[in-house]
């Protein structure tokens, strides 16, 4: 039976819905702050509840939801305090400045006032109090809290008996002596659940760090110290309904829920994306046992770049995808405590996938090394490749003389015969960016082969002084029978043009050197920074050479905060060597699997005739194929996301005189609070007299256009009007619409939007 003696607060979190949590002792209904309580671009959603250890539990998303009770409504115990809770952390925050992610707190560490009870990076946990102008901490050393599992944690402060204690699952795990009869120094702060009173502010952003992510249930506070027997008895009562053991948590109950964002007006739905929060580049694509796997840089704590994990998607067909638990996370293992950054995949000696990644360890110099993780498939037959085992030490540590010391990341690996080949991004001392080359016979021991290729920074200053995310793929043979390869890189540095550049050239496997056909690199995409972060693979099913990219959102930190996500992937591209020696690009054919109803089919119509037929064609998730014959037009194209009167519209067009593909976004949005990039983007496209042939993928804020299988143009638009759904052919003279087809497109993930709560 519950012991209520001395209980001063009890949040059971058993509410089925609503935006408040009842304290059963005081009768106070505390407001639950949550970014989707009143969403700007989305439906309103209540804070999420899940099945708890008893009744329901409250889910905290790691950045936007917490409970704050004003200080004037709180009474802080001074000579004795117990805090108990069931918690299931979804992820660990990085713990900047060693500040806890609180379960509950009312403190000011710098003033040595109040108390905080919570967790730090890698599952360490602690109670900390201000006592007599000292800051006193007790830690549960050796008893880290597991992720995605329930733990019953209790902290007691007992002034009379001069001790602080921590209990885990009913058992004492730490004790600390204190000076007898010292009391907790009062703190003039609000009492907060899941948010730190003194959280670190992340730069010039709205994000406050040191917040808790995961579920909390049965949070109680007492003005006395529970005894060890009371703790054991309470634990037994909680687990008795489960046969005396802590119940497991189904993955669906602890995962980030993408349904919350399905009705966001700007959130793409048939482009792959994380369920919520932050992503940057997708990487390490690999095909295994009938499934495609793609990973991505992910911060599961919020829509900001901080504590980087490897997110994980899987697909049978490159069109329909499933979310899986993240594959790799930072660990207190001496290898990657400060992030698992970009990398790639390869098959090991048994033909099973292995992951190569940039292991971040800020306590080491250099802080970027190459880590290796192997799938456990050979042990457990895990065909979804959910489980990975990390090699205990880095497989490559940069040595001085190997590139620019300290810039060493994003390994790209492939196997050929009995040899593994690895390229990694770096720079040179004053000579510009470079890609370094290594080979291995066992994936563990690597031999340095020198620079794979470097450019002349004096001639190509826009390529910066460091290169990231190298991708190297075979393209086939040219007309002379010479085998060609493509090298893609992403420049970095003060003068760098941060886009995806490539060279086509020849590969000397023995020397591990690449020689481009021409020194000046080219662009795949003409959209100014939206198309970045490349990765690539040779598809063993079709022999296609596939490229995956991030489609940058280019929105302010504030808008990302209020939306709950940042960025998504671009449509996978198939690249090939054209007969004229140029690079060919096309979106993968599998995108047609996401087509829904066909909304329009037009052939050989004038501009006016075509637009008459398009008046009722509307949508923000569309696939479009169009071929335009210029007639008298110098400029011709299509308007997208157009409101009925043209107040908002995005114009995509070809300029024949300038030989340029251009998007004009000056009228894309009337939202003056949306401080995203507007203006005109585009670049050179030589059509050599061909008609303009566009494949366009419109997915809410995403606009991707593929022109004549030569160039793409990726951009973002954020209309404010809900009726900005129309399309219209445009030209500055007469033209003929040779063909135009429009389809509705269906989501890539099999999930329905949540009903309005």
What are its keywords?
single chain; 757 residues; mainly beta; eight-stranded antiparallel sheet; 5 helices; globular
Describe this structure in words.
- This protein is mostly beta strands and 757 residues long.
- It contains 5 helices and 50 strands.
- The strands form 9 sheets. Strands 1, 4, 5, 7, 12, 13, 14 and 16 form an 8-stranded antiparallel sheet that branches. An 8-stranded antiparallel sheet has the order 2-3-6-15-8-9-10-11, with no helix packed on it.
- It is globular and about 90 Å long.
- The chain starts with 6 loop residues before the first strand and ends in a 12-residue tail after the last strand.
Strand content bin: over 45%
Mean pLDDT equals 96
Structural class: mainly beta
Q: Helical content, roughly?
A: under 10%
Number of strands: 50
Biggest sheet: strands, sense, closure?
8 strands, antiparallel
List the total number of helices: 5
Low-confidence region ranges: none
**What is the radius of gyration computed over CA atoms, rounded to a whole number of angstroms?**
28 Å
In whole angstroms, how far apart are the ends? 35 Å
Overall shape: globular
Give a quick precis of the structure.
The chain is mostly beta strands. The model has no long low-confidence stretch (mean pLDDT 96).
